[in-house]
Design a protein that fits this description.
The chain has 290 residues and is an alpha/beta fold. The protein is built from 11 helices and 8 strands.
């Protein structure tokens, strides 16, 4: 269970007064990703602007994409910042055919001890009928201590910290790991269960191909494609990542991807989309399809 390439998929917002979610655009984007071979999607994480989205909005979207039955896995992110809303969303997710839930710990109060996090995750595990992953992303939230992960009946973690020793220890304890960073996929993928990729929003076929090469033992091909993807990754950091990912995804598949929700700032209208699309292309002919 939970193996392969998952997309940290973005959320299209309309440019209206309330920045409402464009549910139709969301569904089209997920359908396009499904058609490019990804294992699944992970709605409403960091690149999905999850902390900016209300629980009721998330429920509406998750109901829609599970009903679409696209043949991919859905790992629903619970990033509510408090126990009460987390419980409410977990209860609603129990009625939906998601594959698993990714639970972010409450992130405002720092530092937070393992003693404080334990009852939060125990309650999440008590409520959820789906496998539960802890969301370990110290850059934006509080870290999830290793002994908490290994001592609770969690499936494992999404590890967005990138420290090899953390993931190694989680795996050694019999738990699963999905990487949330793309720094060294050829070196890290053989050691974990899969990756949750932001880049897969715009080049899903390339990330899927990299995963295939790694597991086929094509080290040279994997390194070559990884070097290209690092250049693509640098491109997506030139502005707020969710906004640029949406702009380039829209250019690739044509579905409206809208804007970002404040406090994020959209990409300037002067941005050269065509030049950016050229940079997405794999330079070595025949290595990965467009």
């Amino acid at each position: 269970m939970l193996h392969g390439v998952y997309v940290a998929n973005v959320t299209p917002f309309r440019a209206d007064a309330d920045y409402a979610i464009d549910v139709a655009g969301y569904r089209e984007h997920v359908a396009w990703l499904a058609g490019h071979g990804v294992t699944g999607v992970v709605p409403f994480g960091t690149n999905g602007e999850g902390p900016s989205v209300a629980t009721s909005e998330k429920t509406e979207v998750l109901e829609a994409i599970t009903a679409d039955d696209l043949g991919i896995e859905i790992i629903a992110t619970v990033a509510e910042g408090n126990l009460t809303d987390s419980v409410r969303l977990l209860e609603r997710l129990n009625d939906l055919p998601v594959t698993a839930v990714l639970v972010l710990p409450p992130y405002y109060f720092k530092p937070t001890s393992a003693e404080g996090l334990r009852p939060f995750y125990e309650r999440a595990l008590e409520i959820s009928r789906h496998p539960v992953l802890a969301y370990h992303i110290p850059k934006y939230a509080v870290p999830v201590p290793l002994d908490l992960v290994t001592s609770l009946p969690l499936w494992g973690v999404k590890d967005s910290d990138g420290k090899r020793e953390y993931a190694t220890a989680v795996k050694a304890a019999g738990k699963g790991v999905l990487l949330g960073t793309e720094d060294d996929l050829p070196g890290r993928l053989p050691e974990v269960d899969g990756a949750i990729s932001a880049l897969a929003n715009i080049v899903p076929e390339q990330v899927v191909e990299l995963h295939r090469r790694v597991h086929a033992g094509d080290d040279g091909g994997a390194q070559e494609l990884s070097a290209h993807l690092q250049r693509v990754r640098a491109l997506t950091k030139e502005y707020a990542s969710p906004g640029l990912l949406k702009l380039l995804a829209q250019a690739r598949h044509g579905a409206a991807m809208g804007t970002v929700r404040p406090p994020l700032v959209p990409v300037p209208e002067s941005y050269d989309v065509e030049a950016a699309l050229d940079r997405l292309s794999v330079p070595t002919a025949g290595r990965a399809s467009e």
